[in-house]
Amino acid sequence: MQHFSVIQSLCRLGLKAQDPAFRQQVERLHERLVKAGDTKDAETLARLLNAAATATAMQPTKVELSRFHITGEPLTPQVHPPVDRETSQALCRIMLKPSEMARHPVLSERSRKAVSDLIDEWKSFERLNALGVPPGRSLLIFGPPGSGKTLTAFHIADALGLPLIDARIDGLISSFLGTTARNIANLFAFANRYRCVLLLDEFDAIAKLRDDPQEVGEIKRVVNSLLQSLDARADIGITIAITNHHRLLDSAVWRRFDTQVQLGLPDEPARAEMLAQFLKPLAVNQAFVQLMTYVADGASGADLKRYANAIKRQIALRGEDDSPTHHFKALCEVLAREPSMRVHPRAQLMIDDIEAFVASAMHDAAFPVKQKPLASLIDVNQATVSRWLARADPSEARHAQ
């Protein structure tokens, strides 16, 4: 479609307004592109529609929780966290306003649905109570580093309108086994006293030891104490545990959690949405975000944020103007500094041989950038891009991905 890049930008801006009538028109355009056989443009619109739906669904909606739902005293700025008696270190930090860190997480459709369902259960407390079933009070979030587990926990606390008690399990462990057990007891006694969400980070640090033959019996008793504390809290408050190493947890641990949510690496729409956020306030155009999304396949959310910050540093330190060409050069330099095993083959090809990359990408249905904006990004004219494509063997270009 002629001028599709402009139409795409207008659709992206319009969908952000969450106007149902506008979305319906974009859906109609998508259907017409499909019927016309314009598969590439239709897939681009489908990704925009999916990303807009995900962002809308994940907007935090406050749930009003009465004292009947969650018992306990209110947390105030005057309340201090419990401490380790041996070191005087705080066992947790108190976040009275989780909203300060609750930027809505960008999740896959499956993960987003699981989180939304948990929040919806508390919106429907009365209906669930009428059927004799309570909403879920415990959640285990697991996935690779940088997948948004902590951010998701803060989002849930913010949506429930509750303060958050953030405790790292490895921070409770002491060289004195009796101290470790006391720290766990003190943490749970504190959380059970107040209306809050208890977040247990690095949860595998203790739970994995329960069936470890290398550990002594006292440690096993410490782990059993943790599980008993979780059981005792089941009817008192809301508990979220997060871990990068879910395979190390035994079945007794899994049974303590009403809901388990697995977070994975961001898919293409999620990567695009994250990069659009992380690259601000750079005036990046849509073609650059699409290209970066394409070459960063397999990157975590933390990786994408690190890439975006490195690009901004490059632009700032060199005093270069905020132009698409300089954004592209900065991206290549940032990726070139990454260890080869951490860079997607698409990115490696772009760094090593731009002509081969262009030929490969333009023959890939997953690459949404048109010739003209791509030529502008890499600082060549469109005729050069066309010449590179004419020289390339399409089968070899696809094989090079």
**In total, how many domains does the architecture comprise?**
3
> Biggest sheet, open or closed, and with what strands and sense?
6 strands, mixed
CATH topology of the largest domain: Rossmann fold
Low-confidence spans: pLDDT under 50, at least 5 residues? Answer: 396-401
CATH secondary-structure class of the largest domain: Alpha Beta
What's the β-strand tally?
A: 6
Structure notes:
With about 400 residues, the protein is an alpha/beta fold. It folds into three domains: about 1-55, no CATH class; about 95-260, Rossmann fold (3-Layer(aba) Sandwich); about 265-400, no CATH class. It has 19 helices and six strands. The chain has helices at about 5-15, 20-35, 40-55, 110-125, 125-130, 150-160, 175-195, 205, 215-235, 250-255, 270-280, 285-295, 300-320, 325-335, 345-350, 355-360, 370-375, 380-390, 395-400, and strands at about 95, 140, 165-170, 195-200, 240-245, 260. Strands 1-3-4-5-2-6 form a six-stranded mixed beta sheet, with helices on one face. Helix 11 packs across helix 12 (about 285-295) and helix 11 (about 270-280) packs parallel to helix 13 (about 300-320). The longest helix has 19 residues, at about 40-55. The chain is elongated and about 75 Å long. Residues about 395-400 have low confidence and may be disordered.
